[in-house]
Amino acid sequence: MTSAAALKRAEEDLYRSALEAAGGNISAAARQLGLSRAKLDYRLKTRRTEG
To answer: How many domains does the chain have?
Structure first.
């Protein structure tokens, strides 16, 4: 696994864990990660289309 792939996987795991901890609430997960809701939503959507 390349370092870029490992980083992508780690980000996906982080987002998934935050969403799970927030009960699926994107706004709460974004606050937990220190991101805006829009930024987390964008990152989730772009990760889904890349894979």
So the answer is: 1
8-49 per-position pLDDT tens digit: 999 999 999 999 999 999 999 999 999 999 999 999 998 877
The enclosing domain of 46 has a CATH number of 1.10.10
Q: Which 3-state string (H, E, C) describes 17-31?
A: HHHHHCCCCHHHHHH
- The residue range of the domain holding 18 is 3-50
Tell me what the pLDDT averaged over the chain comes to: 93
